[in-house]
Amino acid sequence: MKLLVGLGNPGPRYCNHRHNIGFMVIERLIQQWQAPAPRKKFNGLMTEVHRENQKVLLLMPQTFMNLSGDSVQQATQWFDLQMEDILVIQDDLDMPFGRFKLRVGGSPGGHNGIADITRKCSSDKYVRAKCGIGRPAPGQTVYQHVLSSFSTEELPELPDIITHVAKAADCWVQEGLAVAMNKFNGNVASI
User: Fold this and answer.
1) Could you give the count of Cα atoms lying within 13 Å of 150 in the half-sphere of its Cβ?
2) What is the DSSP code string of 143-170?
3) Which residues are documented as binding site?
């Protein structure tokens, strides 16, 4: 069994913000995999699907970003999952827009959702799908940046990035982390 977690903030006010790219990828996977509509569970919206005879859980925590660990911890305990069977899709300020990287563990890098998951699950050994959103513009705070929509220059590239990350997640489920890293880490445009 695998758990895919997309990070974001709930509600229409936040749906197109940079911080919600994790939700965008989970929504794409639900559509692609023709999964049932998500239902309220574990302080989140969750559905499940089978991929190559393996159950895959798709979770979007509804606790707001800074408390994402509540939802992930509940699902992890209920299904008795190992940390290596969890993939968390997140935005990343320290990577330019269009850059993508799968990795295990490491510092939260100032990402409060990741910090909360690590704290509540007592481990950082889950897989992270890091989607670059770039640094704030001059005069813009981090908070303003992550809670802003993608720019008019970025919007045309966003569907390709979401597709790329969804393919990487599917590859991780079916072929494992090493294969997914080799195929998908890097700049989305160059892959």
Assistant:
1) 24
2) HHHHTSBPPTTTGGGHHHHHHHHHHHHH
3) 14, 64, 66, 112
Is 19 considered catalytic here?
yes
At 122-159, the pLDDT tens digits run 999 999 999 999 999 899 999 999 999 999 999 999 99
Give the number of residues written for the chain: 191
Could you tell me the CATH number of the domain that includes residue 8? 3.40.50.1470
**Is the sign of the CA dihedral 164, 169, 175, 180 positive or negative?**
positive
Domain count, the chain: 1
Given the residues 19, 111, 145, 164, the one annotated as active site: 19
Binding-site residue positions for tRNA: 14, 64, 66, 112
Q: How far apart are the first and last CA of the chain?
A: 28
pTM of the model: 0.95
Which residues are CB-contacts of 155 (< 8 A; sequence separation ≥ 6)? Answer: none
Which domain, by its residues, includes 37? 2-190
